[in-house]
Specification:
The structure holds two protein chains of two kinds.
Chain A (H helix, E strand, L loop, with lengths): L2 H27 L15 E7 L1 H4 L7 E8 L5 E4 L11 E4 L4 H33 L5
Antiparallel strand pairs in A: 1-2, 3-4
Chain B lengths: L11 H20 L9 E3 L1 H14 L19 E3 L15 H34 L3
Helix pairs in contact in B: 1-3
Classes of the chains: A alpha+beta, B mainly alpha.
Chain lengths: 137, 132
């Protein structure tokens, strides 16, 4: 019964989008995390999605999987602020390369996709329960 | 009129099974709406139904190793969808609104097939029960 597989597929979508929301939350929370050197500064994190490759070639797919989380290599924001307690010997502080506007847009996109997957699972549940009472009325 | 249980449900039996497959494909498109390089897929319902009926009625038995397998393949039924717009930059061809509409339409069509099956079953029940 392939309707049960719809739950698995929607489930992988939910997991992936939840992880995306998670990284977005972490990026926004750390958007103002200042540091005194390049290495110790927080960098924006983003998940990488891929279609399940084993099944990508067959006719029925099996959802989406998260390949991993990569750190953004966009340049960090260097700011001259000698009065800051974390300033280095030259008076610079380093701010994360997180663009809060971008992250907000990302968050909305992730939450919309999450909703879509929830609706898919819900519809599949309704279809299944209608099928189970077939011929009983 | 003799009741044949093979023919009692007509093409609705195949219809339900195909709609089920289409549900899975569309769910997969929606789950991969943000996957780079993913191409949306859909079922060519006309071909799929014709193949399913051909398999049901005209399936030839292979009684010898040398016989060719002429049963219609399921391969050409699943096709890539024509993208509504040119490449958006990441090679993904899923239009989430289109997929969601197709998904709910497919769910409704599934319900319709179930409704037809239900009427067939209650008709059969009535015929079997006689006047009670």
């Amino acid at each position: 019964m392939s309707l049960y597989r719809v739950f698995d597929i929607a489930g992988t979508g939910l997991t992936a989008q939840a992880l995306r929301l998670n990284t977005t939350a972490s990026n926004i929370a750390n958007a103002e995390s200042v540091s005194s050197n390049l290495e110790g500064t927080y960098r924006g994190r983003h998940p990488v999605f891929a279609a399940e490759f084993d099944n990508a070639l067959s006719e029925q797919g099996a959802g989406v999987k998260v390949l991993g989380v990569v750190e953004s290599d966009a340049p960090l924001n260097k700011e001259y602020n000698p009065s800051h307690p974390l300033a280095d010997e030259n008076g610079f502080i380093y701010k994360p390369n997180v663009n809060v506007m971008e992250e907000m847009a990302n968050m909305i996109s992730a939450s919309r996709s999450y909703d879509a997957n929830v609706q898919v699972a819900d519809a599949a549940k309704q279809m299944l329960s209608r099928t189970l009472i077939l011929g009983q009325r | 009129m003799a009741i044949s249980f093979n023919k009692a449900f007509g093409l609705h039996e195949q219809g339900v099974l195909l709609r089920e497959r289409r549900t899975e494909l569309l769910a997969n498109n929606i789950a991969n709406a943000d996957t780079p390089g993913y191409k949306a897929r859909d079922l060519d319902f006309r071909t799929a139904l014709a193949n399913a009926q051909a398999r049901q009625t005209g399936a030839l038995q292979q009684t010898d190793m040398k016989h060719f397998d002429i049963s219609p393949s399921t391969r050409q039924e699943v096709l890539f969808r024509n993208a509504a717009q040119t490449d958006t930059g990441d090679g993904n061809s899923v239009d989430i609104h289109r997929e969601r509409n197709a998904f709910s339409q497919n769910a409704m069509e599934y319900q319709t097939s179930l409704q037809f099956l239900n009427s067939k079953i209650s008709g059969l029940k009535k015929a079997l029960g006689g006047q009670s």
